[in-house]
Amino acid sequence: MRNNKQIVTLNVDGLIERAFQTNERTRQAKLLSYDGYAITDSQAFIAKDAYCCLNLHGTVYQKSRWVMNGAERRKLTEGATGTKYRAFLTWLFQSHNVVFVGVNPEDVAVSPAIQEAQKTGILGEHFWICPAPNSETRKWAEKNGVRIIAYTPEILKDGSRVHSTTICSILDDLEQYTAPEPEVKLPITRTEIDVEEFPECSTLIDMINKNRSETIDLMAGAATGLGCKYEFTSRQLHEFIRRNSLAIQMATALDSKVDGYNSLGQYKLHEKLQGSGSSSVWLVEDTTNGGDYLIAKVLNGNTHEDETERQSFRRGIQSMYLLNGSNSSIAPKYIDHLELPLAVIMEHVNGSPLSEVMAMGDFCEPDDTLKMFLTISRAVRNCHISDGQVLHRDLKPGNIIFEDWFPGYEKSQLLEASVRLINFDLSWHRFSSGNTKAISAEETGYYAPEQKGLKNTAPPRSASTDAYMLGMILYYLVCSEHPPEGGARLIDWVDQVRRVVNRRFKNRTVSNRVTRLIDLMTRQEMNERLDIEAAQAEVESLLNFMKRDFHKVDHDVFVENLIATSGRDYSWDVDKIEGKIRTSIQAEFLIRYQPKGMSCEIEFSRSRGDADTRATFGPKINKKISESIQSLKDAGWICEEGGAVIRSLKAKIKISDLIAKTDLGASEMNTLSGRLLANFD
Asked: 3-state DSSP call for residue 466?
């Protein structure tokens, strides 16, 4: 599984770490390794999709933390530490899909966590790659929601069995596999009518002129009958629509001010709210249900013959219907729909779109923009994890509604408002098939590269498209400007992001991390984009950093803050969790996070450059490093000095000690970098 970054093991042999270090793709990155007693420290980095290895029973390098027998297992799983340990494993099985390889999930070290997760009713899809499972094993797996993938190992000429080749092949297949899903069934809202006895198009037009409401219900019934008999993507339904295109255009000729054209079945039109080349949106009154005011969205008459447009519109109806069953209100509630003319009736959501919020100017503080991003991203994420696994794919300011908030209300009410998403025509869900329409509209800066052109250039079944669009929403929140046409394809995209973010956030650490976040979310390649859950974890950490709630801040933030407060230009490696100061002299100045011991490490080395005098360089660098070591020791760092020809120093400090400093170590870092990186002559 080439894209997986987290692994859990019960072995203590350290094989995972050794394999990681020798793999061509990963050896330059940092693997964060945690044993069972420190397992909860990994949660923030798992959320950020960092490389993590969880050695539940310890590693060969630290015998004192091995878990080899019942007494040692009880020590790990009971008491205060055990409570956190068990809660973490339960969370793991609730929120992730787990593949068991070379380990028995019936093992007492694992099965209680699976069973506890199952009790909550929230359990991911788990797989057990298992050679020749017996009947009892199959019964256990079925009871606990674990799918068995049985295999036969490869048998060599000498009779020995090789498991690895087959297992690796299964893992690759699992990563690429998309389960076939049945089509989602929308409710039958109109009586099915046999089209064999259906009027000709010219007769339908006369009927529409005489009794519009009844005729529209008749047409919807005919389309419903065909769809139920042959499927709603069938050639038969498409041919019926083509044959009756003039009648459909008559049925969709709507005007709230003209009698005879101011209704859609039982719904009376009051006001046109929005219109486009493919559809129109109306405020309507339900004349048969107490006069409720609702929203009707209608596919335009001439668009019905475009199969892609029609199926995209219908898929949007399906997405809203699926989201009706969500625990939280994310989309307008589905009320009703017609199959012909294709229309959806939905709840009227009161509130203001994000575009109106941002039009108020400097209404929000910098941290408010991050809070709003979190609220929006959580709504999108709730779509993704709903039973229908809905992907919105049309995230832009006009489609994001802050419920029950209007200009003139307090800012605190805005930050507490729920976010509702509208316009699901481009959406995708777990039961979808085929393709969806591509983009050729205004505000194209929000759309991902795979959505543009005559057709989508990548399958729509990917959450990374929403991640891209959320990255562009964050850009918009930061600078109140729509992202430029071309977006991340622009040569100077990252520089442009950095400029607008720097104007908004004065803290250099926050500014640099927000810039990096937008960059990672808007990468052109889908598999390079940061996922939404990781983006949320980063923003939550930054918000806590900004309000100095440091015990909720990820440790790597403090490490980067040190290098950022040096005032010097630097690069940051996300995978290595390491920063490097850029300098013109022959020196290397690194600051990194060390998960073992949860500490920050500084490593410095400098060799003589062309501008340095040979006779005086040695004494001068020796003096500078000696002074630096002493000042670091005085500030609570543990130091070591090294090198004779190339002078160097190493120092480390626990993150907890760094947090205890009023300025988080900024003053000593300024002094240190100024002393070590200055020209000597």
From this structure: helix
The secondary structure element, H or E, covering residue 650 is strand 647-654
Contacts of 555 (CB under 8 A, 6+ apart): 593, 595, 598, 655
* Pairing assessment for the beta strands 263-264 and 578-581 based on DSSP bridges: unpaired
Are the CB atoms for 427 and 315 separated by under 8 Å?
yes
The pLDDT tens digits for 361-404 are 777 889 999 999 999 999 999 999 898 899 999 999 999 999 99
Give CA–CA dist 326/72, Å, rounded.
Answer: 42
Domain 351-553 grouped into CATH 2.40.128.600:
no
What CA–CA distance (Å, rounded) separates 63 from 35?
11
Give the type of residue at 405.
W
pLDDT of residue 456: 54
Band of the pLDDT at 147, cuts 50, 70, 90?
confident
Give ∠ CA 383-312-227 in degrees, rounded to 5. 110
Domain with CATH 3.30.1460 in the chain: 558-676
Nearest by Cα to 375 from 406, 403, 415: 415
Q: What's the gap between Cα 648 and its chain centre?
A: 42
Look at 160-169, 193-202, 568-577 and tell me which has the smallest mean pLDDT: 160-169
How many C-beta atoms lie closer than 10 Å to residue 401's C-beta? 24
Report the chain's C-alpha Rg in angstroms: 30
Beta pairing partners, 601:
592, 652
Confirm if 1 and 174 have CB atoms less than 8 A apart: yes
Question: What is the 3-state secondary structure of 84-105?
Answer: HHHHHHHHHHHHCCCEEECCCC
Assess contact for 450 and 456: CB atoms under 8 A: yes
Which one, of 595, 563, 603, lies nearest residue 576 by Cα? 595
For residues 135-163, average pLDDT: 80
The residues, ordered by sequence, that sit 6+ positions from 207 with a Cβ below 8 Å of its Cβ are 199, 214, 215, 218
Q: How far apart are CA 205 and CA 212, in angstroms?
A: 9
Residue 124 has a pLDDT of: 59
- Mean pLDDT, residues 134-158: 80
- First CA to last CA distance, the chain: 54
CATH fold for the domain made of 558-676 = Yope Regulator; Chain: A, (3.30.1460)
Specify the pLDDT at position 559.
95
Distance CA(208)–CA(378), nearest Å, equals: 45
* Delimiting residues of CATH 1.10.510.10 domain(s) in the chain: 351-553
According to DSSP, residue 525 is labeled: S
pLDDT at 158: 81
Q: How many CB atoms lie within 10 A of CB 473?
A: 26
